[in-house]
Design goal:
The chain has eleven helices and eight strands. With about 260 residues, it is an alpha/beta fold. An eight-stranded parallel beta barrel has the order 1-2-3-4-5-6-7-8, surrounded by five helices. It starts with 7 loop residues before the first strand and ends with a helix. The structure holds 2-phosphoglycolic acid (PGA).
Length: about 260
């Protein structure tokens, strides 16, 4: 079935690259990837590199995302950066990534406030959700998804849900996990259906159909095609494999080919 939704290929560089290294990477990427918005290529760069990259980037080729920010716009919050301070650099922002939830103890309330702050500032939040290995073992995948989705979106109105992207990232499949194992396409397709059902329950069926759902967790150049072919999956959020520009470009090319074939 042809999906009217756009495909997104998002690199999550995490805490890697100096501004200079990020700049070299972008230069290399822009020589290789064609202009065009399908797939939409996005680089979630470290905050410290966003300004440099924003001056260099050709937004017809790719866009930038924040990896993190504080949800208040201004004020006495030593050491924090708000989305209103960086919104001129980025079009997207990751919210609720499992590394933020579990390493930095970000609460469901923080996540909901960040989703709202991104929307308020004209930035598209990429809300990351996914069950832990334990939740999966206990048969609680659907409950974990529902819980993270409803709490993450609780400030988002029916009018604004079209400004949100969901990334399904089962924690046990993310490469930074000690015992990470790649998710099977059947598991991802099932999770995608649960997410769409939950969205339909919250916002109605038509709106649920329009929300892009991405997959993330140990995706590499060899496995990208298999994940992109899953019904209902609209792109990828790539960590480790995005650190090598050539690998990331190869994944972008794969996405373009699959999109054209659909
Ligand atoms: P990974 O990371 O591709 O290295 O598993 C994905 C993510 O954390 O977004």
């Amino acid at each position: 079935m042809t999906s009217p939704r756009k495909t997104y290929i998002i690199a999550n560089w995490k805490m890697n690259f100096t501004p200079g290294e990020a700049s070299l990477y972008l230069n290399r990427l822009q020589k290789r990837i064609p202009a065009g918005r399908n797939p939409q290529v996005v680089l979630a760069a470290p905050t410290v590199a966003l300004q440099t990259l924003s001056l260099q980037i050709d937004r017809r080729q790719c866009k930038l995302a924040a990896q993190n920010f504080y949800w208040r716009d201004y004020g006495a919050f030593t050491g924090e950066t708000s989305i209103s301070q960086i919104r001129s650099f980025v079009d997207y922002a990751l919210v609720g990534h499992s590394e933020r939830r579990y390493i930095f103890n970000e609460s469901q309330e923080d996540i909901a406030q960040k989703v709202a702050a991104a929307i308020r500032n004209g930035v598209t939040p990429v809300l990351c959700i996914g069950e832990t290995a334990l939740e999966r073992k206990d048969g609680e995948t659907a409950a974990a998804i529902y819980n993270q989705l409803t709490s993450g979106l609780h400030e988002v109105s029916k009018e604004d849900i079209s400004k949100v992207i969901i990334a399904y990232e089962p924690v046990w499949a993310i490469s930074s996990n000690k015992n990470a194992k790649p998710a099977k396409p059947a598991d991802i397709e099932k999770a995608q259906m649960i997410i769409r059902q939950d969205l339909a329950h919250l916002y109605g069926k038509d709106i649920a159909e329009a929300v892009p759902i991405l997959y993330g967790g140990s995706v590499n150049a060899d496995t990208a095609a298999g994940y992109l072919e899953i019904e209902g999956i609209d792109g990828l959020l790539i960590g480790g494999a995005s650190l090598i520009a050539d690998t990331f470009c190869a994944i972008v090319e794969t996405a373009k080919r699959i999109k054209n074939e659909r």
